[in-house]
Amino acid sequence: MSAIPGRPVHILVVDDEQAIRRALGSILRTRGYRLLLAEDGQSGLELAIDRCPDLIILDLALPDRDGIEVCRELRGWTDVPILVLSVRCSETEKIAALNEGADDYLTKPFHAGELLARVHALLRRAAQLTAPPPVLRSGELEVDIAHRRVVLASEEVPVTPTEFEILSLLVRNAGVVLTHTQIIEKVWVSDAAASEAGLRVHISNLRRKLEPTAHSWRFILTEPGVGFRFNAAPIERAQTPAICTGGRECCAG
User: Fold this and answer.
1) How far apart are CA 177 and CA 174, in angstroms?
2) How many C-beta atoms lie closer than 10 Å to residue 155's C-beta?
3) Does one domain contain both 112 and 157?
4) CA-CA distance, 77 to 85, in Å (whole number)?
5) pTM of the model
């Protein structure tokens, strides 16, 4: 029975074994779930982007890339529940998958009853949450998280991977002041060479690409001595920004 009343629930299965896809189809369709099937990580990511499933069942041993990498990419833009279904049963593998954003982990072979119970529990919890959209908009600016594209006034803006990470982080936390340290830790993770000076260079490059007039910023605003803030209302600047304290409600994504 569907955990989300009023509409069909779509579950994306990413597994290269035809027998597993067939078994999951038999188990889940009898309970009213609609299935989307992918044989590898890339097609799974594309289906996740195009069809926005309610839950993803993900194998780790995929032919084109490791499932943990797929999980990491998904978590870059969606909060859809991810249930890992894998023959890998070591504690290390489970911890790695959960650390990269998986919500639950079930090993093969599995019992149909346990699978259904876990699926239902994940959907029930997800029904109380609202995932951030894969495309974030602010005025004429669009940041497509899933496709890693930036569009301004209907024209695509070429940005580097690092510039995209900085911009998407700021947009996800629109109106909140992110300190230099917080941005560096989120974007560069463990790169010891990252610095405030380097961050300012990337911010300057983003402004050059996004702003029509030098020193008249609409999108990325500077909080002197603290960090940067994405203007949630680009036509009229916010007057009382909040400052991110590093809690779970800040620095989403």
Assistant:
1) 8
2) 8
3) no
4) 21
5) 0.56
